[in-house]
Design a protein that fits this description.
Helix content is 75%, strand content 0%. The protein has 17 helices and no strands.
């Protein structure tokens, strides 16, 4: 039992592992994406958009309660059959492969712009993907520990952004609720890419030591990630205004220009070095998830799968470095993956519910016959 506990995730590690799937380079430019649709009310879109991750974790918690030892991959095959189940699992895996590749491409762009402009994209990609490979190769427990540690660094960095309140202008947020409902809804659609990641709970809830805490840990993760998402949008609008935000590709980074520390010439560069750790964390999490699903379907050792996928995750990020191509693929794929995830877990939950009710009814009938 002690050995099992040693290899399983603690409740805290699950919480921060889930936030490690959702907080990455994407939310650096989240204000750009949402402001484009919802204007100064973009923060409202950020709040309403939390409906999606909340739905995912609540339904996933129900599934975990009924099948604590079987993850979504096993349940897909059980309830839909081996052929259909594996097809669904492949589709489920493709989103993790896509996000691994796009996150790695963002890693290349950020380092090119702010830190190592003298290196070629492939060299930067090799560094990022190799670090992610090493972390993924070490296994889920190590990823949980890494996610927990780096989450504290992220929270520490976010706290520093509060300094921008001193230099912002409340007029940048006004008039409140002036945006049309349709535009706020379009803003929610724009958050899909940044708000994905909680689907990973379906893969790893069976690896948590105390299954009864999955719901609490998942909701805590949504609270942490959601607070950071909404704060990112709010403070960026408050500090820059909706007219300046589109002029920077990663507008949230500009918020840290308001921080002045005597011994540090430019605090923004401190933030960027911390962000390398944050990006490598999310990259490693998605890398491992892709390998985990392939391992489940093929039986190939997960460490071997990690090594086999390495060339793919060097090739795709270079291709996705083309902004136009990446945006086209994400705009097409992400909304469809979101719909797929909702349908998959809803159908699974309904089938589990119906089977559970049928089982209870059968037990009642059996007890009645025995009594008679």
């Amino acid at each position: 039992m002690n050995n099992d506990k040693k290899n399983l995730l603690s409740t805290n590690q699950l919480t921060f592992l889930l936030t490690g799937f959702t907080l990455g380079p994407g939310f650096l430019r989240l204000p750009n994406v949402v402001v484009k649709e919802a204007g100064q009310d973009a923060w409202i879109s950020g709040i309403v958009g939390l409906i999606y991750p909340l739905y995912i974790v609540l339904v996933s918690s129900y599934i975990a309660k009924k099948h604590s030892k079987e993850n979504v991959l096993t349940l897909s095959r059980r309830y839909f059959g081996n052929i259909v189940g594996n097809i669904l699992n492949i589709i489920f895996m493709l989103q993790f492969v896509l996000y691994t590749s796009t996150i790695a491409s963002e890693f290349i762009r950020i380092l090119e712009v702010y830190i190592v402009a003298f290196l070629t994209p492939i060299k930067i990609c090799i560094v990022g993907v190799t670090l992610a490979l090493y972390a993924a190769y070490k296994g889920l427990k190590v990823l949980g520990k890494i996610s927990e540690l780096i989450s504290y660094i992220l929270i520490f960095i976010i706290i520093f952004s509060v300094a921008a309140c001193k230099y912002g202008d409340m007029l940048n947020l006004q008039p409140v609720f002036s945006t049309r409902i349709i535009d706020i809804l379009n803003g929610i659609k724009s958050t899909c890419y940044c708000y994905t990641g909680f689907e990973s709970v379906l893969l790893f809830y069976s690896s948590v030591y105390d299954v009864s805490t999955i719901k609490k840990a998942s909701l805590k993760a949504v609270l942490i990630a959601g607070s950071i998402w909404v704060w990112t949008i709010f403070i960026t609008i408050y500090y820059l205004g909706i007219d300046i935000i589109p002029k920077s590709y990663w507008s949230f980074i500009m918020v840290f220009e308001s921080i002045h520390i005597p011994v540090i010439n430019n605090f923004r560069y401190v933030v960027m070095f911390a962000w390398i750790l944050i990006i490598v964390r999310i990259l490693a999490n998605y890398y491992f998830s892709s390998a985990f699903i392939i391992n489940d379907m093929t039986g190939i050792d997960i460490k071997q799968v990690c090594l086999i996928m390495y060339p793919l995750f060097l090739y795709l990020p270079i291709k996705f470095k083309d902004n136009i191509l990446r945006e086209k693929i994400l705009n097409f794929a992400v909304p469809r993956f979101v719909i797929f995830n909702i349908l998959l877990i809803t159908l699974l939950a309904l089938m589990i519910f119906i089977k559970s009710k049928a089982y209870q009814k059968s037990n009642i009938n059996q007890k009645t016959l025995n009594t008679e």
